[in-house]
Amino acid sequence: MASPGSSAVHRPPTDEHRLLLSPSLTIRDRTSFTTKLAPETIRQILQYATALDIDYFDDPTTGHLEREGNVGSDASYLGRVCREWHDVAVSTPSLWTHITAFVDTPHTVESLASSPLQTHLRLSFPLPISVYLRRKVKIPSSLDLDEQHSVMTLLHAVKDHFARVEALVIEANTSSSLPNALDLLGDGSEIFRQPLSGLKTLALRCNADDSILQPLPNSLSPQPPHRSLPLRRSLTTLYLDGRNLLEMLRSSLAGRNGRGVDSENVFSCMPMLEAIGVNNLTCCVDGFSEELIHHFFLDILPSFQRLSTLLLERFDLEPPQYPYISSFNLEEVMPGTVPTPLVSLSLPRLIIKHTKRESIGFVLRCMARPHTIVLDGCFLSSPTPSSSSFPSAPLEGVLSCSRLVLANLPCDFDRSLPGLIAQWDGEYLELIRCTCLGDDFWTELVRLLSPEGKPGPDDGRGRLPEQTRERTRDNQHEPFLGHLRSLKVIDCPNVHPDCLMIFLSQLRRARSTTGGGSSSGFGENSRAALDELVVAGSRSPKLETGAQMKWAKKLVSRTVKWSPLNLRH
Question: Which intervals of the chain are annotated as region Disordered (predicted)?
C-alpha cells in the first residue's frame, strides 16, 4: 500500500470538497446521505464520471474534436466527496486507467515524481492503461518552444509502464513536438528502453506542420537507418501526422528497393490494422513526393486486409504548389486526372476533414465506392475559370456512396452544395452543423428536383459530369435523390421548417410520378418522401405549430424526430 503522504487523494476530505447539501437537511441526514449508496453504485458513478472519449475516427455527430479540453474528471477529486467515496476510488484500479497530462504545461522529472500522473500509474496497476498527452489550449497565441521537451519528459515518466499501455494519444501544436513513430513502434532500444508491446491505438496529431522550419535529422537522407520493427498484432488503430507517415513510407520504399528498412518490418508488422488516419499531409511537408503518396494509396493501403476506415485531415495535393509543375504535362500531374479507380480497395468508411476539392477528388478516385463518406469542414467549391487555369476535380465517388455525411460547411457553399446533393444517389444523408442550409439552399434544391430543373454542375464550372449525363440518359423517369430514405439535420441553425417541408413535398411529388424512384420501399405510405426524418441539436429550429408536425408525419413513412435536444452525447 502506498504511503499516506504520497498523494493528495490519501488525505481525509476537507469540507470544501464535500457535496453541497440543502440547509433543510438534518444533521443525521447530512452524515448518512452518501452512505446510503452501495460501494458498487459509487463505483459505477465514478466510472461514468471519469470516462474519457477521444475518437478521431468517429462521425462528427458527436463532435469529439470540437470539445476543447474534454479530458474527463479526475478520480482523485471525485474521491473527496467523503471517506467512503475516497475508499472506493483508491481501491478500484479501473478508475485510474485513463491518464491525461498536458503538453503545454512545463514538466520536469522532479515535478512529475509527485504529480497526479504517478498516482494514476500506481493506482491503475496492473490493468492496461490509456495515456493521453494533450493540450489545454488548442491553438496557442505564440510558438510553444518547450512543447517538445514536455512531451519527451512525460513519455520518460511513463516508460516503465509501457508494457501496460494499450492506447497512446499525443496531441501537439507543431509536428516537431511529436515523437518519432518508428521509435514508438520499435523494440524500445532506441530511446525508451521499453517496448509498447500491448499497444492497440497509436495517435500522433498536430495542429500544423513545421518540418520545413525544423527538419528532422536524416529527413533528407536518401537511405534511412537500418531498423527492425517487432510484430504488432494488437495494433488496430494508427493515426499519424504527415511527417511521420512520410518517414515510414520512405523507409518502406528503401526496404523494397533493398536500401534500408525491410518493408515487411514497417507496415506489415501491423497486420490487424482496422483504421488509419493521417493529419497534415500536404505538399509543404518536408520530404513530400508524388512517389510516396502513390506508394501509400497503391501499395500500403491495399495490403491491410482488415482495414475498414481511412481518415484524412488536412490532406493537400494542390498541383500549383509543386515547384516543378511547369516541366510536366498538366494531365500527368493533376490529381483529378488519375484513372478511376487506382486501386481495388473497397473501404466501408472514408472520412475527410478540412481538405480542398481537388485533393478530395484524388482520394475518391483511389477508392472503390465506400459505403460511408464523411466530409467534415471541407472546401467543396472549385475555382472559377478566371482565377485558375487548372481543371477542377469531379467528386464522382461522393455520388455513389450509400451514406453521405456533410458537416461544418459554412455559408459560402449554399450555391454549390445543392448541385452536389441533387446528383447524389445514396440512401442516408446527414447534414451536421452546416450554416449554409438557409432558405436559398432549400429553394435551389427544390428547383433542381423539379421536372424542368437540372442537376447542378458537379465540377463547379457549369459542366455536367459524364457519369451524371449517362445516368440521366439511362434513367429518364427516375428523379434525382430517388433512393433517399433517411435525412438527418443536426445543429443547423438556419433551417426553417417551412422550407424543409416544401423540399419534402417536392421530393414526394417526384416519387409519385411514373417510375418515380424507390417509393415502393416505404411500406403502406408508398407516396412518402422519406422513411426517416430527424431534426435535432441545441441550435435546431423548433416546429412552430402542431400542424407542421402533422404535415411532417404525412411526408415521412415511419420515424419523425424533431427535437432541440442532442441525439448523442
Answer: 452-474
